[in-house]
Amino acid sequence: MNDEDQARDHTGEHRFKAFRQAEALIRNRRPLDALKVLQPVLETEADKPSVQLLAGRAYFHSAQLNHAEQAFTRVLEMDPADHYARFVLGRTLQRLGRLVEALGQLRMAWAMNPVPEYQDALSEVSARLRLQQN
Fold first, then answer.
1. Where does this protein have coiled-coil stretches (predicted)?
2. The whole model's pTM is what?
3. Which of 23, 40, 55, 71 is the most exposed place for a label (fewest CB within 10 A)?
4. Which of 52, 79, 106 is the last residue of a domain?
5. Are the C-beta atoms of 124 and 103 separated by less than 8 Å?
6. Do 85 and 71 share a structural domain?
7. Domain residues for 43?
């Protein structure tokens, strides 16, 4: 392995560690710190759904909802079958007050993976929409 290969490997290892550290920071409810750690990864690997999904989660948990929407939308452009990205996009749209759009995303997420968490979110948005219509 020459010096250039070692440098590339080191950079890849550094990005991997930064990604894992950002995941841990989100789990520990420190989304702003996660975004700082994730920034170099976003700059070099923005075309990876996993990176966008993690960034979206950090944006969501730090109430940067427009950035979260962009990140989750980007994930779905790359992988339309990602039910979790649809779910968190739906939750983001819900927090933005765009309930009709949220309902569509949550319905698709639940259809792809009918887990209780998705059903609960779907029921909540449906109920809020019914209240608005009355």
1. none
2. 0.87
3. 40
4. 79
5. no
6. no
7. 1-79
